[in-house]
Write a structure and sequence with these properties.
This protein has a domain of 136 residues. It is 68% helix and 0% strand.
Length: 226
């Protein structure tokens, strides 16, 4: 008589099922020990739909991700037409004033300290760090447009510093005719300098923010898989 083969495959599958059940039970026990219920696990984030490549500037300086638990900064914006890029940036600046006004004041303090004490003095170095840190912070908190907020913060620092210098000279009796073309040109160069630093600092702040968001998402994904 022919000898029937034992159902080895069914036995292997049953063993695998029991191992998977024991693994799931151990995972639930670890969650319970940490005070977390298995039913409260966060759902997997749905993949975002593919976006268009966009312009060269958009690919070179991509928008920063939104802050956690914050609404869309462009939720109430309804601009359209050829002037939409300009009106959109004005809307973002008006909606989030603290993201560029406060860093602009910090950049002003750091800029004045670096000019007053120089790079060889400790206070001058601290002022330089404050200036760059403020501009980077503007890019970190600048919603959707880190370079925009960084540039705006740098321009605010320049305006406040220039206003104080002009008021100081005006208090000594100096008028508009006192300043020659060279002084006006130097003032213009300083404005471009601080705005350019704000652009670079804002870009770097946006990069750090995107990197931190990516690392946080990867860490949450690994925690869910444990």
């Amino acid at each position: 008589m022919p000898v029937r083969a034992m159902p080895v495959q069914s036995a292997v599958m049953s063993t695998d099922d029991r191992s998977a059940s024991r693994t799931e039970a151990r995972r639930r026990a670890r969650l319970a020990a940490r005070g977390e219920l298995p039913d409260q696990e966060e759902p997997e984030a749905s993949p975002e739909p593919p976006r268009g490549r966009g312009s060269f500037l958009t690919r070179m300086f991509p928008p920063a991700p939104p802050l956690p638990n914050r609404p869309d900064p462009l939720a109430g914006f309804s601009g359209s037409g050829a002037l939409r890029p300009i009106t959109e940036r004005i809307y973002l600046l008006r909606r989030n004033l603290l993201a560029w006004v406060l860093p602009g004041l910090g950049a002003f303090i750091g800029y004045i300290a670096s000019l007053s004490y120089g790079g060889e003095n400790v206070l001058g170095l601290v002022g330089t760090f404050i200036m760059f840190g403020s501009l980077i912070g503007a890019g970190w908190f600048g919603t959707q447009r880190p370079t925009l907020y960084g540039t705006a913060a740098g321009f605010v620092g320049f305006v406040v510093a220039s206003a104080l210098v002009l008021l100081s000279f005006a208090g000594r009796g100096a008028g508009i005719d006192t300043f020659g073309v060279g002084a006006i040109g130097q003032l213009f160069v300083q404005g471009l300098y601080l705005s350019g630093l704000g652009f670079i600092g804002g870009w770097y702040g946006g990069y750090l923010r995107r990197r931190q968001t990516q690392l946080s998402g990867d860490q949450r994904t690994r925690q869910r898989r444990r």
